[in-house]
Specification:
- The structure holds two protein chains of two kinds.
- Chain A is elongated, with a radius of gyration of 42 Å.
- Chain A is 55% helix and 3% strand.
- Chain A is built from two helices and two strands.
- Chain A has a two-stranded antiparallel ribbon with strand order 1-2.
- The longest helix of chain A is centred in the middle third of the chain and has 60 residues, at 14-73.
- Chain B is built from 19 helices and 26 strands.
- Chain B starts with a helix and ends in an 18-residue tail after the last helix.
- Chain B folds into two domains: 49-80 and 119-261, Penicillin-binding protein 2a (Domain 2) (Alpha-Beta Complex); 268-602, 3-Layer(aba) Sandwich (Beta-lactamase), CATH 3.40.710.
- In chain B, the strands form eight sheets. In chain B, strands 2, 3, 6, 7, 13, 21 and 22 form a seven-stranded mixed β-sheet that branches.
- Chain B is an alpha+beta fold.
- The chains are: A mainly alpha, B alpha+beta.
- The A-B interface holds A 41-42, 44-46, 48-49, 59-60, 63-64, 66-67, 70-71, 73-76, 79, 91-95, 97, 99, 116 and B 66-67, 70-73, 138, 185, 187-189, 191, 245-248, 250, 268-269, 271-272, 276, 529-531, 597, 599-601, 603, 605-606, 609.
Chain lengths: 128, 620
């Protein structure tokens, strides 16, 4: 049987109030969370777009540099530049190349590594 | 009474509301169930866009990573004529110089075009998409965007109604747009052009919108088109009014798989050496064409392969049938270079020895109703002397002694009459008739290089087999396939085909071939200063319409060095040279030039210091 109103306490009933407040907070939190999430999705999609554009720009720039490097390394280009600048460069002739014997498996102490060196003329002496 | 009236009103209202809800319900079911498929597609078409993501075509690199072919990003500039209204003249005036077109050429393209489809129905596919210019650089595209944003139409736009201002805004922002594209570039121009090949653009239709795709047309570009091409990706997404993608609404995003890089065995520097030497010879002897190949005999790796005249793949108008890769597409009678087949076969079978004597009949030898000739009269010659002097009669006699079956077997084992398997399109197998189709004189003619037709590459492979202890190799042009990060995806290894002659016969043959570049040989001009050379000359009369043509020759020299430890095998062939026509005379010096420069570049140790022989001797 329901109690008499007059016999009920005049104090606020915190249980239902808390429940109601919690429910309100939940709904409000969900709404704010939803909006925040949408904002984040938008912000991140913008970041992705910017990132993709930057990546593409860098990839394109890289391609251009690669092409430039290929031009600079091209034998045709090098040959042409050598002639244009009149550098008088030419490959070393076999007689201009001093070939030292390959080092043995256990090299003697204080020996230096063997190298191939090109000298300008055959009578240049190599010193180690 | 009042209550009954109220009740009626409530009932009527309820009925109206129910009827309204029933109507709405029916509409809902109609839209969501009965017409679902139709409307879903319509909704999707209104919002979603599918973009084709082209893969980047792989590069072609030489053995040291030098770029021989690459793809660079460019733009294809397009227009939406429906957004241009009647302002075509203004737009054409602003863009024509940037697109490198005349205004008269550009102006008509900016009008909406209506076309008819295959059913004869009028379609307006071109209303929103007209391609104005391909291969536009990023810098030019930025200038186009700037020019469009600054377009002036000669009216006070503030006084225009809202729709008028919106139209001009749309025109500036969206009427001209660009599709990403790529362009094939060959940084070294004509270097190794016939090996690298060239590519073209194929226009495909994707959802009624043209899409261009690069595809190989010749050379490695064609042979490895699928590996170079990669696999396209796609993106299903939504766009705003300016056709900018709304990344948040991206639905599918499948990235393209870029094409693989092809690493060749070609060395750009060796190729350059070969091409410059051939160009000098071309100038000196003005042949119809000249070809050269440089190969490592031990592995079959081709370091250089060139044919002049050649073309620049960056300039498609320089490509013609005359610039084909004659090394693999053309067959000719080899002439005396074919003597290596019969002599090495006879040595291998023990039919002859190096110092066996043959009577060369003083230059005239009647056999099977035909008279065979030498380029000069010889008496008794050893087997070695036959190679040294390049005696046709001596070779014919060795061929007769070897027998036609064995001769055929050796020619076949050396790879004649079949494709070498080089990774290039258009290779032919040459002609080596089966023995049953031979005439009586064939056994004497074939040893001197008549009655067979070979490619330059086949002849080089045969010589390279002798330089490789008798082992015939498969020619190698591709070293590996790698991804964009340089990871090797597929590695190609040298392949042995078969051992054609044994070690001892091979060594004897090399001894004989060494004498060819001696003062008594036919190619003294091919001798190198610091290396022992072994090789063979060839001078074949050209055949036109089934008859030998007087005064037209194919001259050749194929050799390798250092003879006892071969590092390089080089073939030089000239078609109809002037100022001399003997192989040793015209091709020998070219061989020496190429060989000496390559030896220097590749740092090949000299095997001995030989006295430089003057250009004397018998230049056959």
């Amino acid at each position: 049987m329901a109690g008499n109103r007059k016999s009920q306490s005049a104090a606020i009933r915190f249980g239902p109030a808390l429940k109601a407040a919690f429910l309100c907070l939940l709904i409000a939190g969900s709404a704010i969370g939803y909006v925040w999430q949408k904002n984040e999705i938008y912000r991140l999609s913008q970041q992705i777009r910017q990132g993709e554009l930057r990546l593409k720009q860098m990839a394109d720039g890289n391609e251009k540099l690669r092409l430039k490097l290929a031009d600079l390394r091209s034998p045709l280009m090098l040959d042409q530049r050598v002639r244009e600048l009149n550098l008088g460069l030419a490959p070393a002739q076999p007689m201009q190349v001093w070939r030292l014997p390959e080092p043995s498996a256990a090299p003697p102490e204080n020996s230096h590594s063997t190298r191939q060196l090109a000298a300008r003329s055959a009578d240049v002496l190599l010193t180690q | 009474m009042t209550k009954r009236l109220q009740l009626r009103r409530v009932l009527a209202l309820t009925l109206v509301v129910c009827a309204a809800f029933a109507g709405l319900g029916y509409r809902l079911v109609d839209l969501q169930v009965f017409r679902h498929d139709e409307l879903a597609k319509l909704a999707q078409d209104n919002t979603q866009r599918e973009f084709w993501q082209a893969p980047r075509r792989g590069d072609i690199l030489d053995a040291h990573g030098n770029l021989l072919a690459t793809s660079v990003p460019v733009k294809t500039v397009c227009a939406d004529p429906s957004l241009i209204g009647n302002q075509q003249a203004v737009v054409a005036h602003a863009l024509a110089p940037l697109l490198q077109m005349s205004e008269a050429e550009l102006y008509p393209k900016l009008f909406p075009r209506v076309s008819k489809n295959e059913k004869g129905e009028t379609v307006t596919n071109n209303l929103h998409y007209v391609r104005l210019q391909k291969n536009v650089t990023e810098e030019t595209w930025q200038r186009i965007q700037l020019a469009m944003s600054q377009l002036s139409f000669g009216v006070d736009e503030k006084k225009l109604p809202k729709t008028g201002r919106a139209f001009l805004n749309d025109l500036r922002q969206s009427a001209i747009f660009a599709d990403p594209d790529q362009m094939r570039v060959y940084p070294n121009g004509s270097l190794a052009a016939q090996v690298v090949g060239f590519s073209g653009v194929e226009d495909l239709k994707l959802d009624g919108r043209p899409v261009s795709q690069i595809s190989g047309r010749d050379g490695i570009e064609l042979a490895l088109n699928s590996a170079l091409g990669g696999v396209a990706g796609w993106r299903v997404t939504e766009t705003d009014r300016q056709q900018h993608e709304l990344v948040a609404l991206r639905d599918e995003d499948v990235q393209p798989h870029d094409g693989l890089n092809v690493v060749l065995t070609i060395d750009a520097a060796v190729q350059h050496i070969l091409e410059t030497s051939l160009a000098d010879a071309m100038q000196k002897h003005t042949p119809a064409s000249i070809t050269g190949i440089v190969m490592r005999p031990g592995t079959g790796e081709i370091l250089a392969m060139a044919t002049l005249p050649n073309y620049d793949p960056n300039k498609p108008n320089t490509i013609s049938p005359a610039t084909r890769n004659r090394v693999i597409t053309d067959v000719v009678e080899p002439g005396s270079t074919f003597k290596i087949v019969v002599v090495s076969g006879a040595l291998n079978d023990g039919v002859v020895r190096l110092n066996d004597q043959f009577d060369c009949e003083q230059g005239h030898f009647a056999y099977a109703g035909r008279v065979l000739h030498d380029h000069e009269p010889f008496g008794m010659l050893t087997t070695e002397g036959i190679i040294t002097k390049s005696s046709n009669i001596g070779a014919a006699k060795i061929g007769i002694k070897l027998g036609q079956d064995k001769l055929y077997d050796y020619a076949s084992d050396f790879g004649f009459g079949q494709r070498t398997g080089v990774l290039l399109p258009g290779e032919v197998g040459g002609i080596l008739h089966p023995v049953k189709d031979w005439t009586k004189v064939s056994v004497a003619q074939i040893p001197m290089g008549q009655g067979v037709a070979v490619t330059r590459l086949q002849m080089l492979m045969a010589m390279a087999a002798l330089a490789n202890d008798g082992w015939l190799m498969r020619p190698m042009l591709v070293s590996c396939l790698e991804d964009r990060d340089g990871n090797v995806v597929q590695k190609y290894e040298p392949q042995r085909v078969r051992q054609v002659v044994g070690d001892s016969a091979d060594k004897e043959m090399i001894e004989a071939l060494k004498t060819v570049v001696s003062a008594d040989g036919t190619a003294a001009g091919a001798a190198m200063k610091d290396y022992t050379v072994a090789g063979k000359t060839g001078t074949a009369q050209k055949v036109e319409n089934g008859v030998y043509v007087h005064g037209k020759y194919i001259a050749s020299f194929i050799g390798f060095f250092p003879a006892d430890n071969p590092q390089l095998c080089i073939s030089i062939v000239m078609d109809e040279p002037k100022e001399g026509y003997y192989g040793g005379q015209v091709c020998g010096p070219v061989f020496r030039d190429v060989a000496e420069r390559c030896a220097s570049y590749l740092n090949i140790p000299p095997d001995q210091t030989l006295p430089l022989v003057a250009n004397s001797g018998n230049p056959h």
